[in-house]
Amino acid sequence: MKNILKLLTFALFVIVMTGCTNIDEGNFAIEKSWTNKIDPEPKTGFITHWTTSITEVTHREFLLPVENVRPKDKMGVMLEDLDVTYTVRLVPAGAIQFFRERGDITCPDNLSGCVIGANYLRKDAAANIGNTIRNYDSTDLLDNRKVVETSLQADFQTELDTLYGKDVFVVTEAKIANAQVA
Question: 0.85 cut: is pTM over it?
Answer without folding.
Answer: no
